[in-house]
Amino acid sequence: MSMLTSGILMLSVLVALLSSFIVGYAIRFMLSQRKKEFAAYELMGMEVKTVRNLFLVENSMIGGAAFLLGSLLGTGLSGLLNQVVQNIFEVTHHYQVLFSLRALGTTFFFFVLMYGFSMLRAAKVIRRQKVIELLYDNQKNEEVGYQPLYRSVLTGLLSLAAMVAGVILLEKALHIQTNEAMLYWSGACLLILAGVYELHRKVPVLLYQLAKRNPRRKYRGENLFFLGQIGRRIQSSGRTMAVVAILLTVSLATMFVGLTMGAGYKANMEAYYPYDAGVAIDAPLTKNSMDSVRSFVEERCEAEDSVTYYLYAVPNEAIEALALSDYNHLREILGLSPVSMSDNEFLIHCDTWNYMDGTRQRLEQQPEITLNGRTLTPAETPILTEPMEQYQMAGTKGYVLVLPDEVASRLSGEKIRLVMKLEDSGYPELKNELKQFLNSGKWQPDIQLGQGLPERVTMGVTVKAWGVANSLTGFTTLSFCGLYLSVIFIILSCSVLAFEQLSAIDRNQKNYAVIDRLGVSGHRQASLIRKELSTVFLIPLFFPIVLTVLLIVGTQFFFGDAILQEGLVLFYGLVTILLFCAIYLTYFGATMFLFRRVILRPEMR
């Protein structure tokens, strides 16, 4: 919890810095809408100081109301946030609203910095601009200047090459195990983000220039008006849309990684730690050797159940075997129902999805096995898939062969295992204590008659409480912070786009009034507004979506087999895109509503 608190606090500082630009943008927008009004006040004899103070007081009231409303909403949502965190750590919880004076004070501090700095800049504009500048500020001539077509094409190709180089560096970084990998990661991210920025600066200009070169399309219907509108947007807001594209790329990437990392690791935790405590020793020891280990654990925490069993070597097969009685005892510890089969049957347990198809194919090719002169056929349900940790405890390769007790007893038990179910799942420090006991010399194991120790003895200790307290905490913190940051970035990006469209609403109102007088119907005007805003919102979205799809495919290719739940990467990739689209379309719909309400006459809306 302390890690998570520190992470959220650091991200909140970053969010406050980014939000200050949005707040400044909003205040500049309000100032631009009222410049003529302030010029009229000054012409009527009001002092500049009074006009400035009027603006500051009004915006202070607006900011104060926003702060109070945000604080109330934040306090209410903190209960939901707390529930999410408690659920991640599997702690019993219920919704509860808690008021934190410290959190309120921190929020107010950031609010004063953000809002105060932006208002001081706006006051400086009022103080320094002359009346004539206030009156005609929004009527300045546009400075239109586009690069030659070949330069736009060349820049676009270089940007695309930079993005490809970034992806190649990412692929190389995945195979480097030293600190050098950080250099590759940093270089890859810089190349990709620089490519995204330049592509979103040049590709819209390139498409605009190509559209203007086609006379038939240019003069069809209202396309000339539409191209003029889009050209002005590209000229005035090109950099803004490119920056928004970078923010959206980061948002989608962090959201996908956060969702996949959290869900994937939690799925793996269920498979890696199904038992409260386990000891795995790849040596032919007697079962009595594990009695002292069991006693050592029971001295520290009460054991509700335990089982000592062998993993048997199967002659001429790259698979280990479990006796049916031991297998059912493991299922009982996990709360699963027992299975039954006849003395001439076998089954395979495989809880690793990427081995499932191969296992089915092997069963189809070899439906019978012969062991010690006895032929066995598959059971009615030949493959079972419940999580049983099959890389150490119930197998070592991701699967295990389950045999009748009589058949298994004739095989060589080359690996021994101890599994325990503990009261309250044990405690994290038990893992180190158990490892120290096994290596201290106090434990004296016995070797089976006629067997010898291998050259290297592999020993493993698993304690579920340790795994949850260490591994899950770190991954969950990263996952939650990634999701938190991605949602904030999406909201900031959409806010910038919305303000960018609304800031030019005066000019658009005049432009649409002209085509209204020329006889363009209200239906066509509404269609033009929808087409214009859709284009502006779509421009910074294209490459972030493409890169996210590539990220999803790459993650599935490189890490899909490591996640012990089939289809999890693709599922959360789809969830990422749908969740992003829901937030993005909400802002688009709100901007469209305000735009149409201001531009169109009431009967046209």
UniProtKB/TrEMBL annotation:
- Identify the main location: membrane
Name of the protein in its database record: ABC3 transporter permease C-terminal domain-containing protein
Q: Which family, according to UniProt?
A: Belongs to the ABC-4 integral membrane protein family.
**Is Protein biosynthesis among this UniProt entry's keywords?**
no
Q: Which organism is it from?
A: Blautia caecimuris
Which residue ranges does UniProt annotate as crossing the membrane?
A: 6-27, 54-77, 97-120, 149-170, 182-199, 242-265, 477-499, 533-559, 571-595
Per its UniProt entry, which superkingdom is the organism in? Bacteria
Keywords in UniProt for this one? Cell membrane, Membrane, Transmembrane, Transmembrane helix, Transport
> Where is it localised?
Cell membrane
Q: Which InterPro entries does the annotation name?
A: ABC-4_Integral_Memb_Prot (IPR052536), ABC3_permease_C (IPR003838), ABC_permease_BceB-typ (IPR027022)
Report membrane topology: Multi-pass membrane protein
Domain ABC3 transporter permease C-terminal: from-to ranges: 10-129
The record's annotation in PANTHER family points to: ABC TRANSPORTER PERMEASE, ABC TRANSPORTER PERMEASE-RELATED-RELATED
Name the Pfam families for this protein.
Answer: FtsX (PF02687)
